[in-house]
Amino acid sequence: xxxxxxxxxxxxxxxxxxxxxxxxxxxxxxxxxxxxxxxxxxxxxxxxxxxxxxxxxxxxxxxxxxxxxxxxxxxxxxxxxx
Length: 82
Prior knowledge:
This protein is an all-alpha fold. The protein has one domain. Helix content is 74%, strand content 0%. Helix 2 packs across helix 4 (44-65) and helix 3 runs antiparallel to helix 4 (44-65). The protein is flat and about 30 Å long. The mean pLDDT is 77.
């Protein structure tokens, strides 16, 4: 778990976990689907932290590249994984 926390760039881990938990409760989003997939492998806590880190990475790239966010749907993610 320490490596995953370090990968979050030393940002507030509690905020990352809060955002990851919120994303995990969504039904038809790519981040929600990823949370449900990870939860079966690594458990709730690590899955929430991993999704929170993903959200921080997305925010970083959006701000650094000054682009807009276009969310993937679960059908798109399923098609990409097949």
